[in-house]
Design a protein that fits this description.
By secondary structure, the chain is of the alpha/beta class. It has 17 helices and 15 strands. It has helices at about 25-30, 45-50, 55-60, 65-80, 90-100, 155-175, 190-200, 215-220, 245, 290-295, 315-335, 350-355, 375-385, 435-450, 475-495, 545-555, 560-565, and strands spanning about 115, 180-185, 205-210, 230-235, 255-260, 275-280, 300-305, 345-350, 365-370, 390-395, 425-430, 460-465, 505-510, 515-525, 540-545. InterPro entries: F-box-like_dom_sf.
């Protein structure tokens, strides 16, 4: 007996009905792999567990073969709902899969996780799409096909509105959802209905979504009534809500991860004792240390963002203000001895925040972000002396811009007490996928080689974080191909320049797209000198490793958290 067609199928999306039919014997042969085991000899739970390793396309195809596979594969297929819904077709296909119009066979109650990222621009997801396509004619890179939906605004809005209505309907019926991630939303579409739908999910524990406008926060938001353990609100055009922490106080006993865009926040009347991971705007005030430590006393991870009216220390007056606030912080730390002892990772969007905070104890991992106007050079050594990190990430933003004269990025990495503890280094280069990105990243890596040559760093990861250049996909693909092709050359040059290196990785990440990890184990062989000739420098050998092996190394060296961070 053949079961009805399953609507939700995966082929770079929840679309299509042309998946090849498979037979039960074919699948049993795949599971057995030559042995005498057959799927129908196992109990239901074991069968369902085995099927959970299959991709959604295979699960969907199996459910079309017989009723037995419909029953067994349903739960593993529902568990795949964490795969991002990116297009209107995917959302509508998923809505059909839920069978909301047939309550007796509805699948809504099985959905525990949803990831929503509706995009008008759809980027290629597979690695092959970046290498197997011929280069487009540069003259047509900016051309828009006549049939493109951007040419018909009414059609675009109708498609988008239909997808949004479908998504809200999904939220209203999937009442057992525990985790929701909304990474994309349109600025011209009200978010209040989305918030109201989410606030009705009584079992929701993990939520990530854009921030609601300030004017609607007090009346339409009831997130504090949910049993949230993790809350991440991404900033939009409206993010200045000073009293947000006070509004979230009912969550103080459940939250263990909080990331909110609070600007110049007001410390609430009670603490959040269970929060371990915190991302928040830097509170630029003279009692910053007291405010953070007393509100979040048990942090292990801290990430500070800059504010619009602060951290302008390329001007003399602002730098004086930061020096004065740093003195206030150091004084407060004396009265808070022993605070934050488990803090293991700290990061900031600007070096000024870490400079002002003045951490007086060792932190294992540290991330410092710098852009064109940040004076990272003269602050970096002070920040490293404060915390003595073992692993340092430096994030350079706007890599696609070339500045003349080019600001030094790594002048603080000089031999001495500030860098004595440094063993692992991550260079993250963020920018749009245009030709200048590849050129500027080479300059940054060359500068890093010179700075690391005198240090004792053993592991280095070069991380390319590339955003799509939407005017021309051709440019993004070309940049990715160039970087991947040059990865062995960059690794070899780095190994030769830095004598202490034992491992090098090159991680290429296209935002909302595929990733590549190239990595090598570095060994050095010293040739025996002949006669009175001075000993030659050791020869460098690079042994390439697989991606899985590379991630194992990053995990063992406690670098994977910084590598995977957005």
């Amino acid at each position: 007996m053949t079961s009805p067609v399953v609507e939700w199928q995966w082929n770079e999306g929840f679309v299509g009905t042309d998946i090849q039919m498979v037979t039960q014997d074919t699948y049993e042969g795949l599971i057995a792999s030559g042995s005498a085991i057959r799927l129908n000899t196992l109990n239901f739970d074991v069968q369902s567990h085995i099927m959970s390793f299959l991709p959604p396309a295979d699960l969907s195809a199996l459910m079309r073969t017989c009723q037995q596979f419909v029953d067994i594969a349903l739960l593993p297929l529902c568990a795949c709902s964490k795969t991002p819904l990116k297009t209107a077709e995917q959302i509508l296909s998923f809505l059909r899969f839920l069978r909301l119009d047939r309550p007796s066979t509805s699948r809504a109650s099985f959905i525990k996780e949803l990831n929503f990222r509706l995009e008008e621009y759809r980027a290629p997801l597979s690695k092959a799409s970046y290498f197997n396509l011929h280069d487009a004619d540069p003259a047509t890179c900016y051309a828009v096909p006549e049939t493109h939906t951007f040419m018909d605004e009414q059609l675009l809005r109708a498609t988008r509105n239909g997808a949004l209505e479908a998504f809200l309907s999904i939220l209203q019926h999937c009442t057992n959802i525990q985790r929701i991630q909304v990474d994309k939303w349109f600025e011209d579409v009200p978010m209040a209905p989305l918030y109201r739908a989410i606030a009705a999910l009584s079992k929701l524990e993990d939520l990530r979504m854009p921030m609601l406008p300030r004017s609607q926060w007090g009346t339409d938001v009831h997130l504090a009534q949910l049993p949230l353990r993790k809350l991440v609100l991404r900033p939009g055009r409206w993010f200045e809500i000073p009293e947000m922490l006070t509004a979230l106080q009912p969550l103080a006993e459940t939250l263990n991860e909080l990331d909110v865009p609070v600007c110049q926040w007001v410390a609430p009347g009670m603490a959040f004792p269970h929060v371990r991971k915190l991302g928040i705007e830097f509170p630029a005030s003279k009692d910053v240390v007291n405010a953070l430590v007393r509100t979040f006393p048990h942090l292990t991870h801290l990430f500070l963002r800059g504010t619009r009216n602060f951290h302008l220390c390329h001007t003399h007056s602002s730098r004086q203000d930061e020096d004065r606030l740093r003195e206030y912080s150091q004084y407060q730390w004396h009265s808070l001895t022993g605070s934050w002892p488990p803090l293991i990772t700290v990061g900031a969007e600007t070096p000024c925040a870490l400079y002002t905070l003045g951490l007086p104890f060792h932190v294992s991992r540290m991330s410092v972000t710098s852009s064109a106007g940040d004076p990272a050079g003269d602050m970096l050594s002070t920040i490293l002396t404060d915390a003595h990190p073992t692993c340092l990430e430096m994030r350079v933003t706007q890599v696609h811009y070339k500045y003349e004269p080019r600001p030094p990025r790594f002048s603080g990495l000089e031999p001495g007490d500030a860098t004595a503890s440094l063993q692992r280094f991550v260079l993250t280069m963020e920018g749009d996928g245009i030709p200048d990105y590849a050129k500027v990243s080479v300059l940054l890596i060359d500068e890093l080689q010179r700075s690391l040559a005198s240090l004792s760093v053993t592991h280095v990861l070069l991380k390319y974080s590339i955003d799509h250049f939407r005017a021309s996909r051709h440019y993004t693909r070309k940049v990715v191909r160039t970087i991947c092709a040059e990865a062995p050359t960059r690794a070899t040059a780095l190994a030769q320049a830095v004598p202490s290196l034992r491992w090098i990785g090159v991680y290429v990440r296209v935002k909302a797209g595929p990733t590549w990890l190239y990595c090598w184990e570095v060994s050095r062989l010293t040739e025996r000198a002949q006669g009175f000739v001075l000993s030659p420098p050791p020869s460098v050998r690079l042994k390439e490793m697989g991606e899985d092996e590379g991630w194992d190394v990053l995990a063992a060296e406690e670098m994977d958290e910084l590598a995977r961070a957005d």
